[in-house]
Amino acid sequence: MSEAAPSSVFRFAPTPNGALHLGHAYSALMNQRRAGETGGRLLLRIEDLDRSRCKRLHEDAIRFDLAWLGVGFDGAPRRQSEHTADYAARLSRLEQAGLVYPCFCSRAEVARAAVGRDPDGAPLYSGACRALTGAQRRARLARGDKAARRLDMGRALAAVAGPLAWIEYGEGTAAETRIADPAAWGDVVLGGRDLAASYHLAVTVDDALQGVTDVVRGRDLLAATSVHRLLQALMGLPAPRYRHHRLVLDPAGGKLAKSRGSPSLADLRAQGISAAEVVQALGFGRADAPAFEVALS
Ligand code: GLU
């Protein structure tokens, strides 16, 4: 398929657990630019499955910021919290195929017995609960022990035929083939103790259900794409094309984060900076000197 197929579908998928900053703005504008260049559609997805951290007031603020920036979307947003049955159905099919097991370990237990680090730097799960017998699992579930659902990575890799890859554009126009390395993530969580679906499962299901052909998101999610490709293969879902773009850095060259005092779009607005100045500083506006400097990775 040509990169500029008229039926391209893009999505911007913020998590409403805080305010948008310049990194989110860059991603939203990049999606808008790509959708515009290809005559494609741009969808908004609200990734609000983590009910303890996601708030409606953050979603409202995000939508206000996006409108302020001038990023518009086709159709109503898909709010993940309203579609938990979609994820549960997919999870139970993977479970029936023997690819998922309940994990009773607490976060602290996972950390104590870690067998290394995953590509995000989080403790790599030892697979302790994989060794439980069917009877042990049933007994623990029957007595009400809370369990996450983990993918049995060994079995999952055996269930897909051959190596997995994806088409990656990065910031450029040339397609590159990337080989997926899902094993580096170990037995990833697909459903949490109190979470309908993990990010990996929900994003894979939603990209397919929304007909997304082009995923444009930050480089910080490049490694996670290996897990997404594996899940697509296991669930028989199509693979979108991927464009993992550069990240906006703070003045010290670090990642933007509220904890490091990075200003939100609302903070910039309160300082009197206009949307046009933000768009221009991020490289999506006029070519003349920007009102402020932005560093990209
Ligand atoms: N919800 C994720 C985030 O805000 C983005 C997920 C994605 O684009 O795949 O970081």
From TrEMBL:
One GO molecular-function entry: glutamate-tRNA ligase activity
Keywords: Aminoacyl-tRNA synthetase, ATP-binding, Ligase, Metal-binding, Nucleotide-binding, Protein biosynthesis, Zinc
Entry annotated with the keyword ATP-binding: yes
Segments forming domain Glutamyl/glutaminyl-tRNA synthetase class Ib catalytic: 10-267
GO cellular component: cytosol
PROSITE patterns per record: AA_TRNA_LIGASE_I
Database matches in Pfam families: tRNA-synt_1c
GO-annotated biological processes: glutamyl-tRNA aminoacylation
Family the entry assigns: Belongs to the class-I aminoacyl-tRNA synthetase family.
Name of the protein in question: Glutamyl-Q tRNA(Asp) synthetase
Source species: Roseiarcus fermentans
